[in-house]
Structure formats: structure tokens, C-alpha cells
Amino acid sequence: MSLTKNRIREIRSLSQKKVRDELNLFVVEGLRLVRDAAESSFDIPEAFSTAAFEASPAGGDLIGLLRARGASCQQVTHRELSQFADTVNAQGVLAVVRKRDESAGELIRRIAPPALVVALDGIADPGNLGSIVRTCDWFGAGGILLGRTSVDLYNPKVVRSTMGGIFHVPVVTGLDLPECVVQAKEQGYAVYVTDPSADLFDGDVHFSERSLVVFGNEARGVSGDLSRLADERVAIRRYGVGESLNVGVACGILLSAHRRFHA
Amino acid sequence: MSLTKNRIREIRSLSQKKVRDELNLFVVEGLRLVRDAAESSFDIPEAFSTAAFEASPAGGDLIGLLRARGASCQQVTHRELSQFADTVNAQGVLAVVRKRDESAGELIRRIAPPALVVALDGIADPGNLGSIVRTCDWFGAGGILLGRTSVDLYNPKVVRSTMGGIFHVPVVTGLDLPECVVQAKEQGYAVYVTDPSADLFDGDVHFSERSLVVFGNEARGVSGDLSRLADERVAIRRYGVGESLNVGVACGILLSAHRRFHA
Fold this sequence. Notes:
homodimer; alpha/beta; CATH 3.30.1330.30; Alpha/beta knot; 2 domains; 6-stranded parallel β-sheet; 4-stranded mixed β-sheet; 12 helices; 39% helix; 19% strand; elongated
């Protein structure tokens, strides 16, 4: 069985944010990420794989799991797969996954203390967003609130760099962050805005039982209207001369400090 | 004055590692990085900038500083600059910088306690290497020992992601790391190898007055022959379910732990 050009174009079009938004779907590629998807409770309408992939032990197991999860699995040629894959080496498998819907309000309310929620305001680099999701997965953050000016969570490079974290950490996207922060404060959250010029340092923060930590754009930091809602402004203590830290690295250090404080 | 095609090709060829190695030169682009270079003690044989850049206040100041530092500064057209720049937007300025030479032995010996040296074994991603140099700059690490299997420090994407750290943190490149580690141990260094399966965690390490912290390849970690030389194997404590952390994030957390321990 061979895929029609039309069908290939359809799946290929999921590389565009507009189409992902319309269809509420995104694409994951490669054994590891597709396995993470299959082992999560995300809905997987379709998967495509090569004969060689299906013949491998790990591949065969994964296709079995995908079928059991209700995915419609189709065999495609290597050439067809490379036509709709984002990476040069899609490792023989690709799945179409349905996005999750949850409101910021639900997320904020359902996390049990010591609650740790991360808000991201205008993260521009896909690798940074992916790395932050991965870090939140490592530190067991309860969820991520993603502002509407950030790069799209379902961008293939972001999905890849989460290393599966996208299937473990609840992320609410497209948000009006000042509005969410006000909501979180009403639910008892303390709001920590990262700000390189702050004089409260990561190791000295008395993190609340309900903590919302806000990270900003790589160049401009957290925007003013959001920063004004801070209960505390927090910086990473500097010991050298560097002008700044990568936002993903700063996130790792602050989440580590939060977990140490509540350990 | 216009540049010959030959000259453009020469400078453009510095995008290749082989040529950078032969000529012992590398290229930096943009106001901020070129200013970091000019404010460092790195030798800058040449710089190229557009008339518009030179006419801007910051640009004029920088050209003055470059001239004072002995750089031969040439005006080029925007079109010429874009022919040898790596980024689409080179911001009107580009400098050719001479690499630094220092031996690993010298570096190890000259750093005063509490000495913190980072060794990198097979870092593959340019963004990760750049981010680690930037993090080392923030935490004031004494230097970096870069193994010969890592991505080239002078790769334009690495240089950019260091955010100027390449001009502040001494990095020795192309090293046989097991040999360096043996040397460091002879000089009283304790060697901490990051290893996700270790049962000693970042916050519990009693860092020596002379610490060498080793990070490995993104997929394979630290190689066996290097790992065997460890005094301690160290992991980042996990609170969630993520399988791993980005190596740059792990570096930030461990360097922060080291500085906290010796504060």
C-alpha cells in the first residue's frame, strides 16, 4: 500500500503551527519519542513506520503497543517517511498525536503542595523551550504555563528537545500570563519572577508551598506587566563575570533550589 | 575600497575547522561579541564593518577600540559582509581573532583554590558547548579542558552561544582527557565524574579545594576510561520521572552546588 501525494502533503503540513492549531494534532518522530507517546495517555490517531522498523524487535513491540492504544498503523516506504518527517533520520517511525486540553485554572488548582508551577513568558528558542520542559520533567514540576508569545510547544524541534517530557509534564499553551498569575495568586501561589538584577538569590529563597516561578524571553527577560505581579524577584547568584545565563540553565538551578528547600 | 573575491573566500573559509586549525584564527560577529573580543586581551588581527555600523555611536566607539588594540579595520559593503558572515544578520561587524594557546598542565597549576575546572568529554551539540562556556563564565570556573572528540570550540554557533564567555574563560582544546585527569590528580585535584546512575547527589558532594568536574557526551555520557579515574561519581537528584537532563543544565546545577559549598 502506498500513500497518496495528498495524504503525504496533509501530514507534512503539520510542520506548520497554523495547521497544528486547526487540527489539534502534532507529530513525533523516532523510536524513543514515539514510545514515550505510546506509553503516555495521549491519544495517537495514526502512526507510520517502515517495514525495516516493524521487523526490528523494539519496532515490532512499539507497533503492537500503538495498535493496542487504538492507533491506526500504516506501513510506508523509507522514501515516503522522509517526505513527511522533520528530521533527516526519522528512525523509521512517526506518530500523529492529539494535543491535550486543560485550562490554566484547572492545572493550578489540582496540583498538591509543595506545588511547583513554571510560567514561561516569550521563550523564543525551540531548544530552550524543549530543555525547560525536560528539566521540569526531571524535577517533577506540576505543570508549565506557556505565554502566547512563546515559540510553539508542538514545533518539531521543541518536541524533540523535551526528550519525552512533553508527554509527562502538563503544559497549557497560548496563555495570557498576567491573567494566569492573578488567578494563581488567588489560589495561594507565591510568584517568583526571575530577574538578573534582583538581590534575592536562588539559594536564599523561602519557597512557598505553592510556588509559581516565571522565566522570560532570552533577550528581554520577563515583561513589565508580569514582573509587577511578582511576590519576589529572584536572581541566580553569580561568582564570575558572565553577563547572563541561558534561560534553560537558570531554570534548572532554580528548580533544583526549590526542590532542595522543600526536601 | 572593495574586497577581492579571493579575500572574501579566505575569510569565508574560516567557517571550516581545518582552516581555523591551520591559521589559528576564528571569526566573531556582531556588536556585542566583537566588543567582548576587543575588551579581552585576545589578539585581533583584522576587523570588517559597514559604513552604517561605523556611523553608529556604539559602532564608532568599537572601531576606535579595535584600532587601539592594533586591529586592521576595513570598511566593507553590507553585501560583502553577508558573504563571509555566518549569521544572516551580522549586525555590520565581524572580527578575525587569534586563538589562545595554553597547555592543560599550565591551566591546572595556575588556578588558585577553591579551584573549579570543568572537563568536557565528547560534547556534540554546539549550543550545549556554548552554553557550558557561558555557565562557566557566570560561575567563575577557572577553566575548561575540552577533549578532542568534542565539537570545535571555534565553530561559529559555539562562539555565539558562549555570549562572550569564550573571551573570559580559559579553554584548552583538543585534549587527551584521561592524560589530563591523571595530571590534575597529581596536582591534588579531586575528580567528579557526572553519571546519572551515581548515588551521590549534587547537593551532598563535599567538593575538594581543587575540583575537576567531568561532563560527557549527550547520548553516551562520560567514556569508560575517563570514568574509571573518578574520585566520586555524581548525579543530579531527580524528583520527577524525566530520563535525563540536558548536559548544559546539569553543568549549571553542579557548578552552582560547588560554589554554594565553598561560599
